[in-house]
Amino acid sequence: MRLFEDLRGSFGGLPPIVFSAICNHILSSKAMGGIHPKSPQTSSENSHRELFVMLHSESQTFEGKNFSGQSFEKRSFEECYFKGCNFLESNFNSAFFDGCRFENCNLSLVEIKGSRFQNINFMNCKLAGLGFHQCDPQFFSIRAIQCVLIGCNFSDCNLKGACFKESRLIDCCFTNTLLAQADLSHTDLENSRFHHCDLSQADIRHAKNYSIDPLTNKINGAKFTYPEAMSLLDFFGIEID
């Protein structure tokens, strides 16, 4: 933080784009041991939180970084790859992620109000307590494969064709959510709530622990497997011997 303040004191009068370029150049040097993906990192450096000041990042790889508690507000990332990074309690408000991939990352309790997630892939990540309903709906398309999602809110989200294959979605909220043609196969939907959702032509085969009311959700053309599909009859008040 002291470095960033010193830079702003020296170059703060320059246009924002020039100031950002200077910061990026300085932090990418080996002498600073910055966050440039090619800069060598020691184990002691990786144990500390990283200072992130770049306003725009494109086609960069960030591996093993501890960004917990960092603010990425209004920053943009294009075609970036995050591997093994910790974003616990970070601030993504009004940030823009386009075509990025997160792998083996912890995104628990991240603030994402007004964020834009466009063509984003999460692979083997943990996402807990995220309010996806607060994201910019005009720029929202995600895939979460083999992930753990706990207490996430997808109310009013457009998830048409989204993929959650082989993920665990625990205590998640789907209210007025468009899930047509979504892939929920091999998922664990324990305690997740579906209310007034469009699940038409969704793939829910081999999913388990789901509770989907056919009377309040659209399931036309959705694919289920036996015996889990028997839970759909629970809402009709009938008994089958």
Helix and strand arrangement:
Blueprint: H1 2-11, H2 16-27, H3 43-46, E1 56-58, E2 61-63, E3 76-78, E4 81-83, E5 96-98, E6 101-103, E7 116-123, E8 126-128, E9 140-145, E10 148-150, E11 168-170, E12 173-175, E13 193-195
Parallel strand pairs: 1-3, 2-4, 3-5, 4-6, 5-7, 6-7, 7-9, 8-10, 10-11, 12-13
Give a verbal description of the structure:
With 241 residues, the protein is of the alpha/beta class. The protein folds into three domains: 1-34, no CATH class; 56-126 and 134-143, E3 ubiquitin-protein ligase SopA (Pectate Lyase C-like), CATH 2.160.20.80; 154-241, E3 ubiquitin-protein ligase SopA (Pectate Lyase C-like, 3 Solenoid). The chain contains three helices and 13 strands, in the order H-H-H-E-E-E-E-E-E-E-E-E-E-E-E-E.
Give the structure's gist in a few sentences.
The chain contains 3 helices and 13 strands, in the order αααβββββββββββββ. It is of the alpha/beta class and about 240 residues long.
Provide the CATH topology of the largest domain. Answer: Pectate Lyase C-like
Return the string of H and E elements. Answer: HHHEEEEEEEEEEEEE
Q: N- to C-terminal separation?
A: 67 Å
Taken from the alpha-carbon principal axes, the silhouette is elongated
Taking the sheet with the most strands, its summary is: 8 strands, parallel
Radius of gyration of CA atoms, rounded to a whole number:
21 Å
CATH architecture label name of the largest domain = 3 Solenoid
How does the helix and strand content classify structurally? alpha/beta
Determine the number of helices (DSSP H or I, runs of at least 4 residues). Answer: 3
CATH class of the largest domain: Mainly Beta
